[in-house]
Description:
- The structure holds 2 protein chains of 2 kinds.
- Helix content of chain A is 34%, strand content 27%.
- By secondary structure, chain A is an alpha/beta fold.
- Chain A has one domain: Aldolase class I (TIM Barrel, Alpha-Beta Barrel), CATH 3.20.20.
- In chain A, a hairpin with a 2-residue loop joins β1 (5-13) and β2.
- In chain A, α5 (110-120) runs parallel beside α6 (154-164).
- In chain A, 50% of the residues are buried.
- Chain B starts with a strand and ends with a helix.
- Chain B has one domain (2-204): Class I glutamine amidotransferase (GATase) domain (Rossmann fold), CATH 3.40.50.880.
- The model of chain B has no long low-confidence stretch (mean pLDDT 95).
- Chain B is globular and about 50 Å long.
- Chain B is of the alpha/beta class.
- Classes of the chains: A alpha/beta, B alpha/beta.
- The A-B interface holds A 1-5, 40, 43, 45-46, 70-72, 74-76, 93-98, 120-121, 123-124, 167, 196, 198, 220-221, 244-245 and B 10-14, 16-18, 20-21, 46-48, 118, 120-126, 142, 144, 146, 148, 166-167, 186, 188-192, 194-195.
Amino acid sequence: MLIPRVIPCLLKKELALVKTIKFTNPNYIGDPINTIRIFNDLEVDELIFLDITATKENKKPPFEVISQVASECFMPMTYGGGIKEIDDMRRIFSLGVEKIVICTYAVDEPLFIKRVAESFGSQSIVVSIDVKKDSRGKYEVYVEGGTRSTKLDPVEFAVMMEQMGAGEIFLNSIDKDGAMEGYDLELIQRVASAVNVPLIACGGAGRIEDLGEAIKAGASAVAAGSLFVYQGKNRSVLINFPSHSELQEMFLGK
Amino acid sequence: MIVVIDYGMGNLGSIQNMLKKIGAKGIISSDISDIQKADKLILPGVGAFDNGMENLEKRGLIPVLNEKVLIHKTPILGICLGMQLLSKKSEEGHLPGLGWIEAETIKFKFNENQTRLKIPHMGWNTIKIKKDNPLFTNMYEETRFYFVHSYHVFCHNKQDVLAETHYGFDFVSSLQKDNIFGVQFHPEKSHKFGQQLLKNFVENI
């Protein structure tokens, strides 16, 4: 029986793993390699690992850390952050990473997605779409870690990225990030109904039931940060992940 | 020595990481003399069928593989595209496959009575073992494997089917004929479940 993929999304800033709220206020979670080792031991379905400062600071992806992480990760791993060179991508894949997320560069150079999908196959190319609602309630795509507005509509952009060859869409709600009050179901529904490729929803999960809601809204997979790194109202750091049978019960109902 | 065949179709770092984890001696190589010396072969692969066959051809690997597998009976494990290449042909392309198994690779199609599911079949799924085999010994309860594929192998000889998986219908997720093994899923990315499977291939076959 296939159940939706549930994916911890981990953010790296300088040497540390952090968790943000609305893409700001990074809070220290731990050492990247140790934390990812714990997620591996918890037998998570998949892992998304993003360097959230690489693009903004115009840095290369942290190959050394990626290599260490990949050599201990026995589940599919996705890396994102600072990607704009085919050679860097080739190097990352050779370390044992399955998929690469591209965000800012997908907006700035949409044809890059076509090129890399042809070189590496669509199944390895994920486009991240980070979305914020403006004061009139209109959804808009942001890049560079939520700091640069693009005036693009997320649904139109997702359709274009699918046409370019993206194998998956990683849809992030900036407004819901870190809030732990549930996903933006309307946003998920809009984008999911417009594309055929799998959509990974991210931003807002606070309870395991939220994951099921996002799937009902049309997501193929669900990602979360806070839910898997915090425990309790005070948000004390505790790496956790539901068991396979717990997830099975929640997704399939009783 | 285990040789992981490098023919430019991705995924090799992960397999080497997993072999290292289980303490197996393995090298990644596209060198004919390495392949000739191998005790066991792994044919990995992610990507399109014709690209895979073209790349094997370009590197001149098809004759040495035929000799190793069909004459010397060296055990070989095809993973994902590597399993599909064991078949005669694929709906994904025009080139003939290695053709060691009476099988063909076809696209996922669902009839009216089946739920239309998303393609690729991506995520963790279970298997139903169809015949006793050392590849699937000492498996865990609730064994599951990571899949990502849009095509699947259809075996003409039912006795070659080692395991099936349900996605809209039951398809062949593992096959075996003599020394030739194939798995549609990625053992190198399937936690302790895949680790046990590769350990079985390395130690028990």
